[in-house]
Amino acid sequence: MEAYLPIIIQLVAGALGGNVAGKLLKNMSLGTLGNSIVGILGGGLGGQLLGMLGMGAAADGGMDISGILGSVAGGGVGGGVLMAIIGVIKNAMSK
Question: What are the DSSP calls for 38-87, one per residue?
């Protein structure tokens, strides 16, 4: 279970990041469910990218405070960024 904890943290943080980005960027929002789903995907991708770069809990498997904060930051930022990208694409396609 401890091996999955960083991934779970990244996914939850991604969902939160996607929804925060949706609130801040109202014209790009995909709705609560859409923001959450895209945020979860972005959170997983962001966390894995940080792990490949040697940062976050995914890099060393440790769950100390820096690993947790790295997972939260990577997941949240990844979720927000992917939600914004998908929102821009959705708006461009609807015009």
Answer: HHHHHHHHHHHHHHHTT-SHHHH---SHHHHHHHHHHHHHHHHHHHHHHH
Q: What is the pLDDT of residues 7-34, one digit of tens each?
A: 899 999 999 999 999 999 999 999 999 9
Measure Cα distances from 69 to 27, 66, 74 in Å: 30, 5, 8
As given in the structure block, the two tokens for residue 7 are 């991934």
Minimal CA–CA distance to 46: which of 95, 19, 20, 83? 83
pTM value? Answer: 0.85
